[in-house]
Amino acid sequence: MFDKNKLPVLILLFLAGVVNYLDRSALSIGAPFISHDLSLSATQMGLIFSSFSIGYAIFNFIGGMAADKYGAKMTLFVAMIVWSLFSGAVALAVGFASLIVIRILFGMGEGPLSTTISKMVNNWFPLEQRASAIGLANSGTPLGGAISGPIVGFIAISYNWKISFILIMFIGLIWAFCWLKFVKEKPVKSAGNVTVVKGNQSSQKSYPLSFYLKEKTVLFTAFAFFAYNYILFFFLTWFPSYLVEARGLDVKSMSVVTIIPWVLGFIGLAAGGFVSDWVFKKFSQKGVLFSRKVVLVSCLFLSAVCIGIAGLVATTVSAVTLVALSVFFLYLTGAIYWAIIQDVVQQKSVGSVGGFMHFLANTAGIIGPALTGYIVDKSGSFTGAFLLAGGLAVFASLAVIRFVRPIIYKNERDIEMTI
Q1: CATH of 1-186, one of 2.115.10.20, 1.20.1250.20, 2.40.10.10, 3.50.50.60
Q2: 405, 217 contact by CB (below 8 A)
Q3: Which pLDDT tens digit goes with each residue over 359-412?
């Protein structure tokens, strides 16, 4: 399906996602050990989980602008170096305050990943392949989450949790070397020419970033992405602790069980872009946004229903099954948010607008984990946190139906055009 000269880029982007979530998930897997060793409460752990997203959300936007200005290749290279070093620095933490600082800096390093993936896909792949390419590139993230459980869990049980953070630091540094050596910013044949993103773009004037930041399509796509991230961060940060504290699993069993949702998430994220591109080809007369919205609305709604019910069921098997299905449906939408931005935004602004969307979406990572910790401490149960995550995503899926529309442009002669 993809040209062989594009495969190295896609493979390394995929592996970047693996490293990204291997690093990011390590703290939640190691949380039972870390909270015990450093005497941290659930509220403090929630704040530590949330602190990551302070740096992460800000550098979603800054990373997007850097990708537009300095190139996606160099931006991602620097990002990988930074986040790998601060992933390893977790082993140096001595208490609550030091973990907060390390996780903020770690989040700053990871912030540019998704926007640089989007920018690289925009540079290398044609319109009809972009959702598929974004889905495949990003599908490395749940795979990284899946392998983090066995790796961090095994090392923590057999040796010491600190060793796992040092090991995954070196994995990231090796990736950075390969990326710098083997990948170019754009295909050689188009190095001197900007790839045409849309057929009518050459006749359009250049629109500033501020134009896009006021568009309902961008803002409500970001809101849907916020709901996506709220569920994702709830799962990413608190699910291991939920299995240990609420379901009574030991760390070894928890490390294995967490693989199940991540594997389904990997399948969903890899497949979601292909599904959207297939719908686009089958219903091309309805426009590209129709194909994106069909997948986004239906799958985000199903994810919401599953996560909400998961908080109400009595058995561990039922809860794990529903959470796994929720992650599967959630990840089916994972490529769509980025595809929408690529569909409606001029190429020169794809990184910045995508970064802005990602910034807004990842404020969920600041709010959600801390709020979950507070709910658990006050109620003594995870049920309210499950229901809140599901309700937010239901509302967001309905908002997409109403507000996500093609952006109306005017060319230099004030002739209205839509993408």
Answers
A1: 1.20.1250.20
A2: yes
A3: 888 888 778 877 888 888 888 878 888 899 899 999 999 999 988 887 776 654
